[in-house]
Design brief:
single chain; 584 residues; globular
Amino acid sequence: MTPLATAPRRVALAALLLFAAVALAYWPGLHGGFLFDDYANLDALGRYGGVRDLHTFLYFLTSGEADPTGRPLAQLSFLLDARDWPADPWPFKRSNLLLHLLNGALLLALLRRLETRLAALQPTAAPRASWIALLATALWLAHPLWVSTTLYIIQRQAMLAATGCLLGLLAWDHCWAHWQAGRHGRGWAWGVLGVGGATVLAGLGKANGLLTPLLALVLWWVLYLPQAAALPAPRNARVRRDGWLLLGVPALAIVGYVLAQAPAAARRALAIRGWDLGERLLSQPRALMDYLGLLLVPREGSGGVFNDGFAVSHGLLDPASTLPALVGVLALLALGFAVRRRLPRLAVALLFFFAGHVMESGPLPLELYFEHRNYLPALLLFWPLAAWLLAPGAAARLRGALAAALVAAWLLLSWQRAEVWGNPTLQAVLWAQRNPESPRAQGYAADLLAQAGRNTEAQALLQRAALRTPGQVEIALNRIGEGCASGQLSAADLAAAEAALGRHRRWNQGMQQWLLGIDAAVLRGDCAALGKPGLERLLDAVEANPAYSRAPGRRQALLRLRGRNALADGDAQRALQMYDRALD
């Protein structure tokens, strides 16, 4: 048997070993717990006694609040792991890992097809093409940045968007193959049902999955369209026209929709964020360049979920890295356009990456920075690196050894991060140490330390955080929570919380949930250290805050709390007044 014949078997065996190694690297992290948004999204599993019939099934399926769709595909997938709440987190994390491996298999299939398309433009030996596809997949699949996506249960939404996108890109390849062969009807069927259907599925997982036509358009323009020149003139003209119709029109529609949200986004940013829309857009080049740095050289301290310490760009030189980052993004985009014929892999990697960030790094008033946003855009980022590492010529063996070392190093880093994700208390303490400017990280660590009975450590951590970031509302509120737990709340802590609530600018759902929770705790008698008088002082400070009261929905929520508290005091008349004002 010739080496050429055995190459596919070797590639298949290497792929199986890769998937097994990734699974082993992630395995320690499967023993971790739920986090943050997991609770807000998954508690609906048990809200009506569990998902046990059609009524409760439909309720849970439509209970999602993110995106206009509520992300029902992700909701449906969670039913594979539990149908009641509270639940065991292990099955959810196991399913996320399986989905990550599935995405790796789909990426391998896509890259193998793209190498075949590239061979028509730049002749490539078939065995080398398979190894390039496998190495590019290995670099993506083993990358330690995805630990915080795969092991954070709710980020299955981002993973499902990537699954749908990969299916759509594979369907596009089938569409093109039929068009090349003159079977335009079959091609359109693959385009409409395959690309269109996969785009819908991706969007039902998470809204950025709707970018699938734009991402396919990048591939079509760089890799597929040049092949049309070899077709007879009438067919050449037809496939060019059909490509623009199938991919260009929906891509423009999606981008136009995102841009059309800018006016509403500007108003919403003022209502829920501590920055305006212009500051968000100025901040995103810094975020994008930082993402690229993390993807190419993973660093110690990343791999978490606390990003509230990411600085806002108030101007081109505030901070000073804003202008260089903007220039860097524009330069990389220009490079992608410039090398599309000479270095098509590099062009695809760059243009695909930035196109994949159009939604979450655009005008929508999302938080400034999250590592999981790169899961889909980075799918093809390591393709040119893999081709260079496996290219024939000088130092080929040295580059091959470097490729193996790189995959091994990233697997080791993924395993180390998964070990941390499998130990929630250690995870919280490390995140607090690595993110000293993040009030959320400090508060989360203090909360878990208190739950573990380490109250002295929790209080000391919050005291250090209060000195480091004076006036931060998250720290002040966590000190209230610690006071409730310990039964001792100082007048200074209450005054600090009152002052912080009175001037806080960024009101999000987490802040609303804290107000609801502390109000309920006081009414249950679980926070005697604060009591009704202390609670009223906090609510008065919130009501007097202009940043809070500018949003009608928040004013209504506060009035509902006032009404509930009046009922608890037996004052039905005042409760009725509060509820009437809330309805108004």
